[in-house]
Write a structure and sequence with these properties.
The complex is a heterodimer of chains A (466) and B (142). In chain A, 45% of the residues lie in helices and 27% in strands. Chain A has helices spanning 11-14, 23-33, 38-44, 46-66, 104-108, 134-140, 154-164, 167-185, 187-203, 209-233, 273-277, 308-314, 332-356, 361-388, 427-432, 456-465; strands at residues 4-5, 68-71, 75-80, 85-91, 95-102, 111-118, 128-133, 148-151, 237-241, 244-249, 254-260, 266-271, 281-286, 299-304, 390-394, 397-404, 407-414, 418-424, 434-441, 448-455. A 7-stranded antiparallel sheet of chain A has the order 7-6-5-11-10-9-8. A 6-stranded antiparallel sheet of chain A has the order 14-13-12-17-16-15. Chain A has a 4-stranded antiparallel sheet with strand order 1-2-3-4. The two termini of chain A are 47 Å apart. Chain B has a single domain (1-142), classed as PH-domain like. With 142 residues, chain B is of the alpha+beta class. The chains are: A alpha+beta (466), B alpha+beta (142). The A-B interface holds A 20, 23, 27, 30-31, 34, 75, 81, 83-91, 94, 118-121, 127, 442, 444 and B 23, 26, 30, 33, 93-103, 106, 114, 116-118, 121, 136, 140.
Chain lengths: 466, 142
């Protein structure tokens, strides 16, 4: 197939690569700052700055014209670069995830963004990212219409968004939105938002005003995060065809992720404490490229109580096996050590802060009481983690149950996807005959699954059998 | 079979180093303009010395020590000036191969070969283009 150019909408995307050129006008400005009568002299030379900006635009257009791609049934080839010309070849059998993204502005221009990822390359960005015409994007997607289709109900996606929403991310987004609105539409927007927040905080009379404001901001941020997750993931549908798993999602930006089933490194059933109490299970996969975008969740089965039927349809070759090794009986104290320590220290820290800053005494004491709540939450998670943690091995698959931060994980890893297994023992663990098991699965970077405080002899026995 | 880097790779490194040195020199020019002349000339002399040492000693030694090999197991690059390192990527781990050519490489018919694998990447500098293409093909057909 002959080489093709990207869609012209890709031209602005090249501009950031030449931002370094903007140093030249900056240096020119710095030079004139020190001179007497510098401003008029600087003004006379503005043609130079304009020329730099024009060259930035021209270079972006030239970079676009030098960037070509061609794809056939075997490989993808990408040529790029003005001075440094690079040719990358990726056989399609090594592509783990292929993503077609269609934001609203690209849909209006009849374009789409295609990303291809492999197990190698940059672990933060897709290995190949192209902006192509819409009809060209179709070439990248699997053409077979046959397959198993699953569509997630809206309430499940709402639950997913509620459970995975991030308050701080929402607050950041909200702050940026309010700031930009006040720049575009005037200060009145910001003043209205602040007035409403303060009025709501005043209504919460039982709580100090600053603490009430903090709670309100976090709550609004959490809701914003939920709405953002919903817009990103709803409507959510899946299709399993032969050896590919296709995920469709997005309201404003439509996204299609094609994951190679053979490239799935592990399947992870995640639960927060709330989900554990409600017996809701969310299934994620680790397939390089899927979920790499900021704010995209690598979810395949949204929260539900009976996930095994859908799992069976999507991954019939993998089954979560039973856990045979459990943590040592006396290890519960190790699980609860951190929350207990925090529960002890926080009230003392609050009192100490009150004595050190008498003006802020009420707020400090109140915040220290508020901080006890997350510690209790952590304690509850650790308690549940102690009961669910364990390791199992059956029919060439590892089952690893553990808690990471505030989330419970139940990971199913095929043995061929395990890169390394480490047994770690501290001095205390040696004395007690326990150990931590770190299992490294195939990934773009090293991130182990850590199962803590298992009996050393049992782990050795299990690894011997494997 | 072990390969040595082509001599023209040295000019390529010099070009890249100069490209990096230009903004640094410009920054130095702005910074030293605030200093007394003695300090200014001392800093300029030190900067010149660093550039000279880098271009005349470090880069030639680096080129002399560079070795590449494509074996049955994978691709291997050995090199270093003070500390020698050997980097290897197994064939099974290779995921992408990129051929890079700057203006000097195009003139000398050489290329850089960037091999990305599941555990990282390695760069083979100053290979003849034909050999780079051949290695690229051999890495794909496994």
């Amino acid at each position: 197939m002959k080489a093709r150019w990207e869609h012209p909408a890709a031209i602005p995307g090249h501009i950031p690569y030449y931002y370094l050129l903007l140093l030249l006008p900056l240096l020119r400005g710095v030079r004139y700052v020190r001179l007497p009568n510098g401003f008029p002299r600087w003004l006379r030379g503005t043609w130079f700055d304009e020329a730099v900006i024009a060259s930035l635009l021209v270079l972006s257009a030239v970079a676009w014209s030098k960037r070509t791609y061609d794809v056939n049934e075997h490989r993808l080839r990408l040529c790029r670069g003005i001075f440094w010309q690079r040719t990358t070849r990726i056989p399609l059998r090594w592509v783990t995830t292929l993503t077609v993204e269609r934001p609203l502005w690209l849909r209006l221009l009849r374009a789409a963004r295609v990303s291809a990822d492999t197990d190698g390359g940059n672990h933060r960005l897709a290995d190949v990212r192209l902006t192509v015409w819409r009809r060209q994007a179709a070439l990248f997607l699997p053409d077979s219409e046959r397959g198993v289709y699953l569509r997630a109900k809206t309430w499940r996606m709402v639950l997913l968004s509620l459970l995975s929403s991030d308050s701080f991310g929402g607050v950041l987004l909200l702050t940026a939105a309010v700031r930009q609105s006040s720049v575009l539409l005037g200060e009145s927007i910001r003043n209205t938002v602040m007035d409403n927040l303060e009025a709501a905080a005043d209504a919460m009379a039982a709580i100090p005003r600053t603490a009430a404001l903090l709670i309100l901001v976090l709550a609004v941020g959490w809701l914003t995060g939920t709405v953002r997750h919903l817009l990103r993931h709803l409507p959510f549908a899946l299709c399993r065809r032969e050896d590919t798993l296709t995920v469709y999602m997005g309201t404003i930006t439509k996204r299609i992720h094609c994951c190679a089933v053979g490239a799935v490194n592990y399947i992870d059933i995640r639960q927060t404490l709330a989900a554990h109490i409600l017996r809701l299970y969310t299934v994620y996969i680790n397939c390089t490229g899927y979920g790499k975008d900021k704010n995209t969740l690598a979810v395949v089965i949204p929260p539900c109580r009976r996930f095994r039927e859908e799992w069976q349809l999507l991954f019939p070759h993998l089954r979560p096996c039973t856990v045979t090794l459990r943590p040592a009986k006396r290890a519960w104290l190790r699980y609860l050590r951190l929350p207990l320590l925090l529960l002890l220290l926080l009230p003392i820290a609050g009192q100490a802060a009150g004595w050190a800053f008498p003006v802020w005494r009420e707020l400090a004491v109140y915040l220290s009481i508020l901080a006890v709540l997350p510690c209790l939450w952590l304690g509850a998670v650790r308690m549940v983690a102690y009961h669910v943690t364990g390791v199992g091995y059956q029919e060439g698959q590892y089952s690893l149950c553990y808690a990471h931060r505030l989330t419970l994980h139940r990971v199913t890893v095929p043995a061929e996807k395990v890169a390394a297994v480490h047994i770690r023992r501290s001095l205390w663990q040696r004395r007690r005959g326990v150990c931590d098991l770190w299992v490294y699965s195939h990934h773009e970077f090293r991130r182990p699954h850590k199962v803590r405080h298992l009996k050393y002899d049992e782990v050795k026995q299990l690894l011997k059998e494997v | 079979m072990t390969e040595k880097a082509a001599p023209c790779v040295l000019w390529s490194w010099v070009l890249v180093s100069l490209t990096a040195a230009v903004p640094l020199t410009a920054l130095l020019a702005v910074a030293t303009s605030y200093l007394p002349p003695v300090w200014r000339w001392t800093l300029w002399a030190a900067w010149g010395g660093v550039l000279l040492l880098f271009g005349c000693v470090y880069l030639p030694l680096r080129r002399r020590n560079l070795r590449y090999a494509l074996t049955e197991d994978g691709i291997e690059v050995t090199g270093g000036v003070l500390i020698f390192t050997t980097r290897r990527i197994r064939r099974e781990a290779v995921r992408q191969v990129t051929i890079l050519q700057g203006p000097i490489e195009r003139r000398c018919h050489t290329a850089f070969l960037l091999v990305s694998g599941t555990g990282g990447y390695l760069l083979a500098e100053g290979l003849p283009v034909a050999r780079a293409e051949d290695w690229c093909r051999r890495l794909y057909t496994r």
